[in-house]
Amino acid sequence: xxxxxxxxxxxxxxxxxxxxxxxxxxxLADRDPQLEIDVRDVAVDPVPHLxxxxxxxxxxxxxxxxxxxxxxxxxxxxxxxxxxxDLVVIGVPMYNxxxxxxxxxxxxxxxxxxxxxxxxxxxxxxxxxxxxxxxVESRGGLYSEGPAKVADFQEPYLRQLLGFIGLTDVTFVRxxxxxxxxxxxxxxxxxxxxxxxxxxxxxxxxxxxx
Length: 210
Fold this sequence. Notes:
Helix content is 38%, strand content 20%. It has helices spanning 16-31, 55-58, 66-84, 101-110, 155-164, 182-201; strands spanning 2-7, 36-41, 87-93, 117-120, 123-126, 132-138, 169-175. The strands form 2 sheets. A 5-stranded parallel beta sheet has the order 2-1-3-6-7, sandwiched between helices. A two-stranded antiparallel sheet has the order 4-5. Strand 4 (117-120) and strand 5 (123-126) form a beta hairpin. It is globular, with a radius of gyration of 18 Å.
């Protein structure tokens, strides 16, 4: 089995999302010692934002410049990593009610007509099926319920983008209220790690080798 790990937090030392992602990968490796792991850290090695000189290379136009060719090559690489994965684990902190822009840029290079989705008479169709996805979300406040839920532009956005390319078997693990002091932060981490344990334990043997 092969897992693609994507981290997006700019905090390399104290990020809750990174801590939980690391634990998830360790638990998967315990389940399958021969697990193959690919890591794409878009905070450490950012995917460039699309600009006038590169957008044609990614969005289907014929690349005619070195910039466009480089953008197409990077898009090909990112899509190949995603295609090769059986499991995808994504760490996403909430930044200003949404996702880090470096993760948005990754999606901008991965969502490509004819490669990860296509248009049909019935509408858009995702082409990446049969994969399981774990999304680890870290949030300073409580956004999964209550009055702040309307300000959650993180999870609905991720669910839409992943589903658009055919990734519909998605589990969200949330570490919330981590900005409410050490006790709340610790409790959020414990709860999220328990959710991760449940997700890993629930994987069928056809998903992760015994």
